[in-house]
Amino acid sequence: MKKEITEANRIEELEIQEQINNCLDEFRSFCFDAGAGAGKTYALHKSIEYILQGKGKNLRNRNQKILCITYTNAAKEELINRIGHNSEVVISTIHEFLWNFISVQQRMLVEQNKKAIENEQAKIKELEDKFLKKHSLDKNVFEEKISNEQFLNVFYSNYSKKATPFKTPVINYDVFFDKCFGSVDEFKKVVRSVNKLDSYQEALEKHPNEIKVEYNPTRNRDDLAKYIISHDSLLEYCKNIIEENNILQRLLVNSYPYIFIDEYQDTDKKVIDIISSAKEYASNKNKKFVVGYFGDSLQNIYENGVGNLPKKDKYTLIRKKFNRRSTHQIISVIGKIRNDGFNQKSIYKDNNGDLCRFYLSSNEVDLEKFLKQHRLNVNTACLLLKNKDICEKRGFEKLLAVISETPRFSGGNRGNLNSEFLQKNEQYIGWFFREILSFIKFIIRIFDDNSTVNKLIDSTSKSTSHITFNELSRFIKAIRHELANCETMALGNCIEKVNKIDSSIIRKIFFIDHKVDDPMSFIKNSAFEYLYFQNGEYSEFLDKFFEIKFNQFKNWYDYIYDENIHTGISYYTLHGSKGLEFENVVVVLQDDFARKKDYCRYFFSNFNNTRSLNNKDQKRFNQVRNLLYVACSRAKEHLYVIYETQNYKDSNLVKNIKDIFPIVEDINTN
Ligand SMILES: Nc1ncnc2c1ncn2[C@@H]1O[C@H](COP(=O)(O)OP(=O)(O)OP(=O)(O)O)[C@@H](O)[C@H]1O
């Protein structure tokens, strides 16, 4: 049934877009704040269309463009699909845009990188001095011992072991090291860092003609000595360079008089600073320039995002109270979770649905049974807190189990699982994992009869103009034959087979240059470097990784790229559901999450008590609230929340939950 919008709401919605259009006409920067499901993407799209209609010709004549920054590549593609390719519009993720903009400014980039190296040197020296003093060691003796090649072999081949099994072979190798152990982690850090000092010094002494800063979008960390930078440093360098440089501010303002930033709440503060410096320049010089931020501060779920827009009072604030996605009942529940008086309402007059249901259970709920009982079998998302549960449901639990044992994803680095392994924003996925994903993508395309030739050639080193029909068809046939059972083959085996058929593909996917004889060893060393943070040739673990079946990697690929998104039942983490929408949503909550034993309980227990929370506690409360808000607001028709907690009898807790959800059921069988 077609839902109906009242005339008053229709007019109000048009007026909101008109407020945005006025800002664009008058070059008044604005912040468009709207709740979940309000249609922010739609408004962004309309704003771009509006400028193109009225000012498109002017822009073309002046060689100017509209710049639109999206949070993910998926959001970028979505917007490009809606608007179509248009030479007056640049739609880009922030890193892609900034690198295009700044990469020609090599002199300033090199200067920034040198400063970063000097900072690192100073930090390492301080760390070393403290360590030497604490253990009464002589600097020269210590440095000579730890730079010895044999020592480094012992050090790295035992690196991932626990304290005692690590210490024993090191001390057996040279009893000198007996004096160095207070904390094993500290020792490891000092050895690793001090051994970098020489390469830092060499990098500083290089002739300027020999140096070029490169941005590697697949890496999550810098290699400062090689002048290779990753995401964070790109933002940092750009901020420093643009803030200090009027000419670049002018270039930005003159080239892009209209800048839109989508999902401002999860945008890095450095990006806002860069745009603000351009805005200030334009205002001082009376230049026509407008920036529009689109977002919702309560949907801030990533730590590096600003949350609230800094200096919001300097922008025209435009708000949209309507929700175009969900039923009245769901809007009421998500409004209570927000609890900030935002008061969102449905744009439709007749958008009634079922009441949202909340289930309390002391045990783990059998989700399959639950879905069957509620006849949830199409367009249904199950949102789970724990990575382990998601990986199990999506069929890549073995992959998770193996990588969880590596230094990159264990102990204090467990958080990397969310940012580098399960992150749907592919630019943040760990660099080695991105290479693996490219390999999986290549195999999937080879077996897909609907793949275009262009897509296939994309992964090979041959160019479309040189490859012959015969060559291409022989090549596809060979891979299809050799990898016919790839689903059950080990990843390492699949890579080796493709390498035998045509090693240029493997070299291209894994960035291996022609000087390397054995691509497979190179890939194994890359895995070691990535997962163990080390250069070396330790392979015991690597065998385990490369023995994992291809199918596990394919399931992981499907999860990252959201294949088959709306058919049947799909599983996501609560974080991963951002930006999506489904007819039915089942959210499963637990207390043991994010190194807390009361992760969700903290939110529900304090729901009516937030005034007494100090700043730190308020921040903790808000983190859970935002995540719950994002997850529950994905539902269009039906929302079910299951809370697995031992505290299901706590009357204050239950009372607070009842303040949010109209139906709260205890589904304990005992
Ligand atoms: N003006 C409009 N006309 C028709 N449908 C719309 C309009 N605006 C939004 N919608 C639809 O409403 C739903 C929500 O819109 P959208 O996803 O753009 O909201 P959002 O504000 O970006 O949501 P969220 O922040 O929760 O991800 C989508 O299904 C979208 O297609």
Kindly summarize this structure in a few lines.
It catalyses: Couples ATP hydrolysis with the unwinding of duplex DNA by translocating in the 3'-5' direction; ATP + H2O = ADP + phosphate + H(+). This protein is of the alpha/beta class and 670 residues long.
Annotation keywords:
single chain; 670 residues; alpha/beta; 6-stranded parallel β-sheet; 16 strands; binds adenosine-5'-triphosphate; EC 5.6.2.4; DNA_helicase_UvrD/REP; hydrolase
What does this structure look like?
The protein is α/β, with parallel strands linked by helices and 670 residues long. The two termini are 43 Å apart. Strands 3-2-6-7-1-8 form a six-stranded parallel beta sheet. The protein has a six-stranded parallel beta sheet with strand order 13-12-14-15-11-16, sandwiched between helices. The protein has a two-stranded parallel sheet with strand order 4-5. The chain is built from 29 helices and 16 strands. It is globular and about 80 Å long. Keywords: ATP-binding, Helicase, Hydrolase, Isomerase, Nucleotide-binding. Its EC number is 5.6.2.4. ATP binds at residues 34-41.
Largest sheet features: 6 strands, parallel
Distance between the termini: 43 Å
Sheet-strand content, in percent, reads: 5-15%
Ligands, deduplicated:
adenosine-5'-triphosphate
Helix content: 40-55%
Low-confidence stretches: none
On the 0 to 100 scale, the average pLDDT is 91
Globally, the shape reads globular
In spatial order, strands of the major sheet run 3-2-6-7-1-8
The total count of helices amounts to: 29
SS-based class? alpha/beta
Number of strands: 16
Radius of gyration: 27 Å
